[in-house]
User: Fold Uroporphyrinogen decarboxylase from Geodermatophilus nigrescens.
Amino acid sequence: MTTAEARPTSPADSDLVRAARGLPVERTPVWFMRQAGRSLPEYRALRAGTAMLEACQDPDLVTEITLQPVRRHGVDAAILFSDIVLPLVVAGVDIEIKPGVGPVVADPVRTVADVDALPGLEPDRLDFLATAVRRLVAELGPTPLIGFAGAPFTLATYLIEGGPSKEHARTKAFMYAEPEAWQRLLDRLAVSAATFLRVQVDNGASAVQLFDSWAGVLSAADYAERVLPHSRAVFDGLGDRDVPRVHFGVGTGELLALIGDAGADVVGVDWRVPLDEAARRVGPQRSLQGNLDPAVLLADRETVDREVRRVVEQGRAARGHVFNLGHGVLPDTDPGVLTHVVELVHELSAR
Ligand SMILES: Cc1c2[nH]c(c1CCC(=O)O)Cc1[nH]c(c(CCC(=O)O)c1C)Cc1[nH]c(c(CCC(=O)O)c1C)Cc1[nH]c(c(C)c1CCC(=O)O)C2
Assistant:
């Protein structure tokens, strides 16, 4: 890269991949968790009449929905339109995503026998995923596609609670009461998450993100002993596939160093810890992703601009910075504000 006009010619040389590896970039790359979704009228139109988990298994819909925010906002990466529970659904677990609620499990995992009865994920059931990823990579050209999976702990919370929950009390109770079955459950979830990620990378995804959204409810000691080894197993399941690995959870301020140690090139940070402080906690060996509060996008333009500037500034303390929100785009976000944030981040960070 010698001139300011030089744009990436391949996903492997994109600002997203470079920032994730701590290499110099033309501009701070930006994408948004949940960038494909209800904030976009074109998404709502396309999804009308199709259940979420059906849409995720239709390569035409997956391709189109994944591309929508790339076209509209000019973000620096696409993220596959899918869901963390999809590997379970494909394996045969009865789960429904209820609009406005989240994943609901028909028969929650409550006993050791339930753990042992969980079906495994056969890779040959993922042809739809391979097809969608290949099509996307062809359409995206130099823009990288981020593949993802849910981490074992966060998936276990849905399986055990039976749906979304605040305290995750049943999950923790099971973790303490049945340590061996807990290990087996998280082992199995790690195997299927790794299978899901490998199909995405082997068909052309340029980076992966492991979502451990609810890991922040754990103490550092419990996380380190009872959860981290299984998340590490997911990353290890990628073998020597040379794509950057992002690891994200909400409320993980006290866990940031451990989240990195699980095998990440990039640690995702929510809005609670400023990025300069997060950089101190994570250390100089990893890049950071985040961390604008998604609620800021509902405020006035001055507030949005001030907060975006702050995040870009504080992000300079990190080895590399991928601009994102601290969690997913809220459904009532004005998509025009998202486009504005992309432009502003690029303008503030242009070399
Ligand atoms: C916890 C979690 C889930 N799913 C996911 C997580 C981890 C990220 C996070 O912490 O938010 C991951 C996810 N889910 C979705 C994506 C697509 C890619 C993206 O644009 O980020 C990703 C990366 C699509 C989706 N997943 C879901 C939607 C909304 C469904 C719809 O449009 O009808 C989308 C676009 C459904 C879903 N699925 C889940 C929830 C909590 C919900 C929201 C329920 C609701 O509020 O209606 C489980």
About this structure: Strands lie at 78-79, 95-98, 102-105, 145-150, 207-211, 245-248, 266-268, 287-292, 321-325. Residues 33-38, 47, 52, 79, 81-84, 97, 99-103, 148, 211, 213, 328 surround coproporphyrinogen III (CB under 6 Å).
